[in-house]
Every structure is written in structure tokens, then in C-alpha cells.
Amino acid sequence: MSDKLPEEVIPLAESGGERQPEAKRTDGKSHVDSAPGDTTDLLKESVVAALKTVYDPEIPVNIYELGLIYNIIIDEDQNVHVDMTLTSPACPAAQELPAAARRSIEHIQEVKSAHIEIVFDPPWGPDKMSDVAKVELGFM
């Protein structure tokens, strides 16, 4: 494992029900938003778009809108690390979903590598879903 600190951590914060990426440094320093078109911003958008193509086989909503993606970390070498959860520790798609998420990110030309880590803290709940997912599933 490299001793380099990730360049950018993108926790997916809730804002008005819509999940929006929020940039934050992991070294405790404030992050100054970069100019539009910055390589990391574009890569972040591509990663989110790729994750939106991955669907839980039991739920007709993509894993991003479902709220399964907790953090996206992109380092200076274009390595992508994603913390994701599952709807339950006994999820039948526990092997399939992380592998599909990793493959979707690896298809992005600028990505050097992709790593998915499954986390269960905090546990997933319907409050993690975006408004888009809630509407799709009849919660709104």
C-alpha cells in the first residue's frame, strides 16, 4: 500500500434529497474547489455516471441512487477507491454488485485502477436513497 494520501475524497452527502458529490481533503486541509473542467472533477463525474449503470438485480434502481455508494476517493495517479455498502449483510448479490461496480469504473479510459471496499458502517437504510430512487420505488 502506498503511503501517499489520496488527493480527493468525495463523500456523497445528501442535499435536499439529491445525492451530490462533495470534495474534501483527507489530510485535514480544506479543499479549494477546482475550476470547471479539472481532470479530477471530470473523472469524478465519469465514475458517478459509470456507477449509475449498475443495478441491484432485485431492485430497479441503480446503486448510486439507491445510496449504496458512501465514498469515492481518487488519488493523483487516477486510482479510484469506492466505499460501498449493501442493502443487508446477507444480500444475495454481495459478490455480483461490487464486481459490477469495479468493472464499470475500469471501463473509464482515464482510470488506472479501481478498488471497491464493502463497508457496513453506517448500515444502509431507505434514508440513504436519493429522491429519484424513492420516487421509483414508490416511497414518495
Describe the protein:
The chain is α+β, with helices and mostly antiparallel strands and 140 residues long. The chain has a single domain (8-136), classed as Fe-S cluster assembly (FSCA) (GMP Synthetase, Chain A, domain 3, 2-Layer Sandwich). The chain has 3 helices and 5 strands. It has helices at residues 39-51, 96-106, 131-136; strands at residues 8-15, 18-21, 69-74, 79-84, 113-118. A 5-stranded mixed beta sheet has the order 2-1-3-4-5, with helices on one face.
Give the strand order of the largest sheet, numbering strands 1, 2, ... along the chain. Answer: 2-1-3-4-5
What is the total domain count?
1
Helix content: 10-25%
pLDDT < 50 runs, ≥5 residues: 1-37
What is the 3D shape?
globular
CATH architecture: 2-Layer Sandwich
Strand content: 15-25%
Task: State Rg.
Answer: 15 Å
- Looking at CATH, the homologous superfamily is Fe-S cluster assembly (FSCA)
N/C terminus separation: 44 Å
Keywords:
140 residues; alpha+beta; GMP Synthetase, Chain A, domain 3; 5-stranded mixed beta sheet; 3 helices; disordered N terminus
Q: Care to give the gist of this entry?
A:
With 140 residues, the protein is an alpha+beta fold. Helices cover 21% and strands 21% of the residues.
